[in-house]
Model the fold of this input.
Amino acid sequence: MIKSQSRPLLFLYIIFAYVIAFSLWWAYLLYCKNELSFKEMIELKSLSYQTNSANKNKSYFLSDDYLSIQNKYERQKKMIMSEGVFFIGILMVGFIFVRRSFKKELTLANRQKNFLLSITHELKSPLASIKLVMQTLLKRNLPEESKTKFVNNSLFDIERLESLVDNILIATKFENDNYGFIKEEVDISYMLHLLKNKYEMNNKKNIHFNFQIENDIYINADKTGLTSVFVNLIDNAIKYSEENTSINITLRKEDDKCKFIIEDEGAGIPNDEKEKIFDKFYRIGNEETRKAKGTGLGLYIVNNIIKYHEGTIELKNNTPQGTIFTIILNTIN
Ligand code: ATP
Ligand code: MG
Done:
């Protein structure tokens, strides 16, 4: 059965094959017509040539008249062939472009569909668990310790929802030329210390975090945008790592730049996926086999925000396994 996604492409192939066949047929007809009219003209001209008494015993096929008609015929033959080849060449180039943009649109539409499916799940599951916690707290008189645990879990779910909504809002900003970001002096070291506390307190996978943060590094940046960069990269490192593995996070100054390095021991990213993961909605694997949930917006946002700050982002394999992301930004001190 033909997949519904490839149906428009099949339609495009059929139209293209029809146009090619149609053009070849017309070129062939034109070619035959040219040949026929040449033969008929020669026949007519040779008859009237023979009836002229001045041409007795002379062959028409050696006359100037014949040679000029033959030249014209040859010229037209070449013209039909070269224009035919040129037309089909243009058609082919056009087809390649149309096919490429068609495929791009189809992939984007497919990713968008997956995005909608995953976002529904990403929104529903934390909401359902928050609702359950609220109902339990209302109905039952729980000990103080359990209450705190439940509330903390709900706060964690709310934070997940918050970062999801932030990602969607930031991603929509990129659609407009004016991102709406405001640059100000940011103490990036302090910002990372705050995140360090947050992640160490909510460490469900028992990750061994190793933060090495050099103090007092200032950059000119959009606070929300930059927080989103760190949150997305740390979230990814946790999400794509197994329990009890290590994540090293380093921030240091090098001349007038600062380097943020995050190293995990997770599944790693295959070489042929390394560029694609920065595309909007792109996620490695397919929806059926993927374990971790997500929208595919995280690295798209990271890449765009880093570009906006005139920084660079680099991606390498960790040894023996995992990924290392390095971000370089300009400092102001
Ligand atoms: P979300 O928008 O919720 O962040 P996501 O994590 O799937 O969803 P991205 O952060 O854009 O989306 O990442 C794109 C893909 O890159 C992921 O689906 C994952 O397959 C891969 N990836 C990203 N970071 C890592 C990592 N540290 N280790 C292994 N794979 C990763
Ligand atoms: Mg992510």
Notes: Helices lie at 7-51, 64-139, 144-173, 188-201, 223-239, 298-308. The first helix runs from residue 7 to 51. The two ends are 63 Å apart (CA to CA). Residues 117-175 form a domain with the Helix Hairpins fold (CATH 1.10.287).
